[in-house]
# Entry
Amino acid sequence: MFTPIKKFARALRAPSAEERELAYLNGSFDRIDLEYRQRQVDRGLFRSR
# Structure
């Protein structure tokens, strides 16, 4: 009964910082780009200050 409501609520929810970081890292093209992105994430690119 509540399944459609849960799906709708999940679709409207904003992605968490961890989900945004993972999506950013998964978008890398090669090892060098991945390392650059990892440094950006380590510096707090997606974290609130």
